[in-house]
Write a structure and sequence with these properties.
- The protein has seven helices and no strands.
- The chain is mostly helical and about 180 residues long.
């Protein structure tokens, strides 16, 4: 009975807040008082929460499967090269869209989507360079350009680890190309 009474009072306070029957800061105080400091959620939000969580988890699971799927498409199928590039471009577009969607919502999902986008961009640009150029210097230049982009993106997003990985990648490419070739 006590819990039902609290829910009724909370719903009434939310009604007052929506219809501006009381000032908003009064309603916020009363909501904080009756919810005991926990975040108050409306009935509509409680109903939609489970569906949004399922959709969010599906998006993230699909996002994590993009990278293995892209390697399967490139290295283990007999698709025409143009079809492989189109599939890679679509996968990259999806990961960029997810990164943009989660940019201000969830930092963990944004960074995951952004890193996967960086790897898919590297794979796509490397596939295009292998299609157009035969020389290994072209592939090395494309990889270096991608890693330089990673450095700038890391500084722009204030993500030191992305910039560090980009710098490490540039160093490894130069060491590999100039020392072992």
């Amino acid at each position: 009975m006590e819990h039902e009474r609290k829910i009724t009072i909370i719903n009434e306070i939310e009604y007052w807040k929506q219809h501006k029957l009381l000032p908003e800061h009064y309603c916020d105080f009363l909501l904080a008082l009756y919810t005991e400091g926990e975040e108050a959620t409306t009935i509509e939000q409680r109903k939609g929460t489970s569906f949004t969580k399922v959709v969010e988890r599906f998006q993230i699971a699909l996002l994590y499967l993009l990278l293995p799927f892209s390697f399967i498409v490139i290295y283990f199928t007999e698709f025409h090269v143009n079809l492989q590039l189109v599939i890679l471009f679509l996968l990259l577009s999806y990961s960029v869209a997810v990164a943009i969607y989660y940019k201000n919502k969830r930092a963990v999902y944004f960074h995951s989507a952004f890193i996967i986008s960086l790897f898919l961009g590297l794979l796509l640009s490397l596939s295009i360079s292998n299609l157009w150029f035969i020389q290994p210097i072209a592939a090395a230049l494309v990889i270096v350009c991608n890693f330089i982009f990673w450095i700038f993106a890391g500084y722009k997003l204030k993500s030191k680890y992305i910039a560090f990985i980009g710098a490490l990648g540039v160093i490894f490419v130069f060491l590999y190309y100039f020392l072992w070739n």
